[in-house]
TrEMBL record:
<protein>
    <submittedName>
        <fullName>Hemolysin BL-binding component</fullName>
    </submittedName>
</protein>
Length: 38
């Protein structure tokens, strides 16, 4: 249990980093779509 609990901060950090990557991709895609619509 203690060992599992110690892994949580690393999991949160990894999740935050992957979320940042997804957010950047979504921003890039939305700009690309907006450019094509004009």
């Amino acid at each position: 249990q203690d060992h599992k609990f110690s892994l949580i901060p690393d999991d949160l950090k990894a999740a935050k980093e992957s979320w940042n990557d997804i957010h950047k991709d979504a921003e890039f895609i939305s700009k690309d779509i907006a450019f094509k619509q004009e």
